[in-house]
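Hi F.,

I've been meaning to write this up properly since the lab meeting, where we talked about keeping a consistent format for the predictions we share between groups. The idea is simple: the sequence comes first, exactly as it goes in, then the structure tokens exactly as they come out, then a line or two of notes. No screenshots and no reformatting. I'm using this chain as the first example so we have something concrete to point to.
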Amino acid sequence: MTVAQRRGRRIMMTGTERDAYLTEQRTCRVATVSPDGMPHVAALWFVWDGTSLWFYSLTRSLRWSQLRRDPRIAVVVDDGVGYGELRGVELSGEVSFVGEIPRTGGTCAELEPPEALFATKYFGLESVPHDGRHAWLRLTPQAVRSWDFRKLSGPG
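Output, unedited:
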């Protein structure tokens, strides 16, 4: 085992730490792939339900059209200013499109939990205001990587 691998394990978040982190953070960076293979990265709000990241995305965005063609996605949620403060999570996999497109508020039991989380987190409301321009994407990640450089300065 190399030193880098040992450090990687030391700074990796536990499942509980990762869940708390993803619940408290507000903005992620979403990477999609264009037809010619060029990446596109954009900031987006999200909610984490303990299993999946949920995005309420504009349906007329470049991100949406690229994901319709190729559902592969990589997402980074991170923060910190100084090296010893850096922490984050990278999640990757394929998105699924959930509910009506665009979302107008029709009944969809699968969307009740993420919509409640999203409404509270970003709007301080009980339900998401539907504008007929957004729809839901879900990423149940196939790969998750995390880091918390604050652990390097702690006891160890």
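Notes:
Strands lie at 27-33, 39-45, 47-48, 53-58, 72-79, 87-98, 134-139, 143-148.
The domain at 3-150 is CATH 2.30.110.10 (Pnp Oxidase; Chain A).

If this format works for you, I'll send the rest the same way.

G.
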